[in-house]
């Protein structure tokens, strides 16, 4: 991965950036949603893209809108939802952001050039100029909150996950220990549950499942929830010393494989849902705390494996690991009580109770894997994401978005 030349694209904003998500629209493979990280009520949601109809590596801001608080996460609607609206040719797409509330945004064409609604055209705000002939606007489609009054402040939402197989469903998590399932078509909360003993930091849907999601939090546990049986949750993994777990992500090619890392940790743990009591691998190479992880794809002819996975951190490094081959088999003798009580083979999480005293073996026995490729930024890399094709990866450092070929 190189800093310049073919296979390298860059967008330089006038704002410090944090959030990053790439569109799932085949018509706009490099369209990215960005959010800023600035103290006070002067943050933005930006959308950048290449100019249509041109083989250009230049990214331009095409739309922006003000945010009261920094967004904790931004994401485009799932690919299945985009495919359902194929007749729009990518001209209308949905985005979601979280922070104080869950907001659903509509990105559409705007030929009127009405700057009062978030339009950015020629030389518009956000840095990098704008389209000369095509213009877009970001409109608020809905604001989802449990607050009965606009003046009532709620605990911050730390993250969310959009269900790829049921695009009307989004689950959010909060520092108040809860997870909330939303129906964005009705803008109503379907259910809210106490997910952890302390703050919940991140969650993800089990691939190819409309009912099961997992979460991690400040109590150091990784838990699974089945919407069909919410009376119980399953503790799949507990970090040594109950070190808070910060992020989690499922492989795009292997349903049972997931990755997570702890707060202020420099290693990524790879877990196998079929035997989740301890990590099967540790991804090494960083010298400072991690900021984000993301899975890509793998070669069509690759053996069974999780694909490429990338991590970034405060050491200014983006490290890429090749997990396209089989990982070491899980140690069957090291299963925890929690893992035995669940049914991970068919992912029907319905244990009779959630044990509180299950202890996972230390992760030191896991295989250590070093990166296959690396890239160094000018400053700390706070976020990353693969493009929908999986052939490129974007990284956020300072006010820059860099997109590199794998």
Automatic annotation (TrEMBL):
WD repeat copies, ranges: 157-192, 193-235
Naturally occurring in which organism (per UniProt): Papiliotrema laurentii (Cryptococcus laurentii)
Keyword Lipid biosynthesis (UniProt): no
Disordered as annotated region, ranges: 329-366
Keywords linked to the UniProt accession: Repeat, WD repeat
Protein name: Transparent testa glabra 1 protein
Entry-linked PROSITE patterns: WD_REPEATS_1, WD_REPEATS_2
InterPro entries reported in the protein's UniProt record: DCAF7-like, WD40/YVTN_repeat-like_dom_sf, WD40_repeat_CS, WD40_repeat_dom_sf, WD40_rpt
Biased composition (Polar residues): 335-345
Pfam families: WD40 (PF00400)
């Amino acid at each position: 991965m190189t800093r310049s030349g073919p296979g390298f694209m860059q967008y330089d904003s006038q704002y410090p950036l944090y959030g990053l998500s790439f569109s799932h629209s085949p018509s706009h493979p490099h369209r990215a949603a960005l959010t800023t990280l600035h103290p006070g009520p002067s943050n933005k949601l930006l959308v950048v893209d290449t100019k249509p109809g041109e083989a250009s590596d230049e990214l331009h801001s095409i739309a922006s809108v003000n945010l009261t608080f920094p967004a904790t996460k931004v994401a485009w609607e799932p690919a299945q939802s985009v495919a359902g609206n194929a007749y729009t040719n990518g001209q209308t797409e949905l985005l979601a952001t979280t922070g104080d509330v869950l907001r659903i945004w509509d990105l559409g064409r705007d030929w009127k050039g009405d700057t009062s609604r978030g339009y950015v055209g020629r030389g518009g705000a956000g840095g990098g100029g704008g389209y000369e002939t095509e213009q877009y606007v970001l409109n608020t489609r809905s604001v989802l909150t449990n607050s009965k009054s606009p003046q009532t402040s709620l605990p911050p939402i730390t993250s969310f996950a959009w269900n790829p197989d049921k695009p009307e469903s989004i689950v959010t998590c909060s520092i108040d220990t809860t997870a909330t399932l939303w129906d964005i078509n009705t803008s109503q909360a379907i259910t809210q549950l106490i997910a952890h003993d302390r703050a919940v930091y991140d969650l993800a849907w089990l691939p190819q499942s409309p009912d099961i999601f997992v979460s991690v939090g400040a109590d150091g546990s990784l838990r699974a929830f089945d919407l069909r049986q919410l009376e119980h949750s399953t503790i799949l993994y507990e970090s040594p010393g109950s070190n808070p777990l910060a992020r989690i992500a499922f492989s795009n090619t292997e349903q049972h494989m997931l990755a997570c890392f702890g707060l202020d940790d420099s290693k990524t743990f790879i877990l196998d849902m079929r035997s989740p009591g301890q990590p099967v691998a540790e991804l090494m190479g960083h010298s400072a705390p991690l900021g984000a992880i993301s899975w890509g794809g793998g070669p069509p002819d690759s053996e069974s494996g999780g694909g490429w996975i990338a991590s970034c951190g405060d050491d200014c490094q983006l490290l890429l690991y090749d997990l396209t081959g089989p990982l070491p088999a899980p140690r069957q003798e090291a299963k925890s009580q929690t893992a035995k009580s669940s049914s991970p083979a068919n992912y029907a999480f319905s244990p009779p109770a959630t044990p509180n005293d299950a202890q996972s073996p230390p992760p030191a026995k896991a295989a250590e894997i070093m990166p296959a490729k690396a890239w160094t930024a000018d400053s700390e890399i706070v976020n990353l994401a693969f493009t929908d094709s999986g052939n490129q990866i974007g990284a956020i450092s300072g006010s820059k978005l860099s997109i590199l070929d794998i």
